Amino acid sequence: MPMDFDHLVVMMRDQLNDRAPRLQKDGFHLTEVSVHNLGSINQLITLESSYIELLGWPAGQPPVRKEIAEQTLGLDALVFRPRNAADTYERLRQAGFEVSPVQRLERLVPTPRGTDMARFDTVRFARQPIPGLRIYYCQHLTPEYIWDESVMQHENGAQSLREIMVRAPDARSVASTLAALTEGQALAFDDGSHVLDLPNLRLVVVPDPGLSVPVIWQAALGYRDGALRPFVPPL
User: Fold this and answer.
1) Number of domains in the chain
2) Separation of CA 79 from chain center
3) CA dist 70 to 49, 62, 158, 225, Å?
4) Which residues lie below 8 Å from residue 94, measured CB to CB, with a gap of 6+?
5) Does residue 205 sit in the same domain as residue 129?
6) What's the Cα-to-Cα distance from 217 to each of 26, 129, 197, 206, 211, rounded to whole Å?
7) What pLDDT does 66 receive?
8) Same domain flag for 60 and 139
9) What pLDDT does 35 receive?
10) Sheet holding 4-13, edge to edge
């Protein structure tokens, strides 16, 4: 059984407070700005079984998290949800990936009782398995603090993250590695594209020989009216 997709990261750098309100104007409900124990800040667009994370650091301050310091604005990272972070770390290590030990991530979140600590175990790579893509894993230790009905109601009718497209110079190789990372299977199509069907999302890898490295090209959301519409970051 392939693992679930957890969330799509949109890099806001030090411009989160300036850019996030544009998504609110588009009808998305954003969570309050939250601060990680690692020094980054975020807001979420929380969806049915995944979410979009608007990630950055406080304006006027240098980035504390070195792995995001050089990331450009826009669609930034694919994050998968392991059933057990420690087991995933060991599986990846034995498969030959250069993986870092499990790291605890925490941040305060508002709850009906006041404030509580949302906790996550993350698995990151010492060297990314697909050059050009930022990929990691996030096991939720307190999922009830993320998938709260009060933050999942969007005026524009958005409900789910349904599809993410990656464009790559070698679509077959990228899809094969993504399949290994997610314990899934990539299906090839006549047009050269490859598709990985995860339990809660479809990953599509499209060949693009004009690129030097793969890029997260676009994401599509499912809406209450049954439509599938592109997600447009506030860039």
Assistant:
1) 2
2) 4
3) 29, 11, 31, 38
4) none
5) no
6) 21, 18, 18, 9, 12
7) 86
8) yes
9) 92
10) 34-35, 41-46, 51-56, 4-13, 74-81, 134-140, 114-123, 103-111
pTM over 0.70: yes
Q: Look-up: residue for tokens 């250069």?
A: 98
**Cα separation values, 27 from 22, 30, 129, 154, Å:** 9, 9, 36, 6
Token pair belonging to 163: 């599809």
Q: Give pLDDT < 70 ranges for the chain.
A: none
Burial class (CB in 10 A: 0-12, 13-18, 19+), 7: buried
| Domain final position from 111, 133, 151 | 151
pLDDT at 68: 93
**How confident is the model at residue 113, as a pLDDT?**
78
DSSP structure string for 119-159 = EEEEE-BSS-SSTT-EEEEEEES-GGGTS-GGGS--TT-EE
**pLDDT for residue 78:** 98
User: For position 59, which CATH number holds?
Assistant: 3.10.180.10
**Amino acid found at 56:** G
* 92 token code pair: 């990846």
Question: Which tokens hold the place of 90?
Answer: 């060991």
Which residues have C-beta within 8 Å of that of residue 211, sequence separation ≥ 6?
167, 168, 169
CA distances from 77 to 71, 144, 203 (A): 10, 23, 13
Co-location of 132 and 175 in the same domain: no
Sequence-distant (≥ 6) Cβ neighbours of residue 134 within 8 angstroms: 9, 67, 71, 76, 77, 78, 128
- Are both 130 and 214 inside the same structural domain? no
The pLDDT of residue 38 is: 85
E-strand spans in the chain? 4-13, 34-35, 41-46, 51-56, 74-81, 103-111, 114-123, 134-140, 158-168, 186-188, 194-198, 201-207, 215-223, 228-231
